[in-house]
Amino acid sequence: MPQTSTASSLRPALFLDRDGVLNEDRGYVSRWEDFRWIPGARAAVAAFNRAGWLVIVVTNQSGVGRGFYTEAAMHDLHAAMRADLATVGGRIDAFYHAPQHPDAVFDAYRHPDPPDRKPNPGMILRALGDWPIDRATSLLVGDKPSDLEAALRAGIRGVLFGGGDLMRFLMDEALWPPPAP
Fold first, then answer.
1. Catalytic residues, which ones?
2. What's the start-to-end Cα distance of the chain, in Å?
3. Angle at 98 between CA 93 and CA 102, to 5 degrees
């Protein structure tokens, strides 16, 4: 349900792509036993949480539409991520996913240009409507040009993560420490 916010109650959000930013992109990761955190990812999430930022994952997940795994398996993986993050004081406030794809094997997921699938901004726009987010101070970290295009179309800043340690990357890009809301 969308939340009503005043300008003074808005908070910055750290939008993160999942595969390649939070976890190693090993091709359609859908099980906890195949999941490997990117170095520094858990620390970065927890640090932004402590700074008062919302942390929101926006992930395409075409593997669902392609029939490689189910939405239930994806949700189970996201629950495991949340539980693991809690052990280091981290929290993901919301996951948004876009299982639709032009080549999906299931009719329900087939769409010629899914509005939520990056580079389209649908997931980010939904989050902006659902949460008290200050668009001007928010940031998206992605590992593909399509992530940055989605951020641009949604009117938020985007940066390209080329791999390595996520926390170190944020520090090197002068994105750390984040300003307090």
1. 17, 19
2. 23
3. 170
| Helix 122-130 and helix 145-154, axial crossing angle in degrees, nearest 10 | 50
Angle, in degrees to the nearest 10, between helices 71-86 and 41-50: 70
> Could you tell me the domains of the chain?
21-142+154-172 (3.40.50.1000)
Tell which phi-psi region holds residue 61, choosing left (phi > 0), alpha (psi between -120 and 50) or beta: left
What is the spatial distance between Cα 136 and Cα 47, in angstroms, rounded to a whole number? 20
Render pLDDT for 119-170 as a digit per residue (tens, 0 to 9).
Answer: 999 999 999 999 999 999 999 999 999 999 999 999 999 999 999 999 999 9
Q: Which residue has the tokens 């390209």?
A: 160
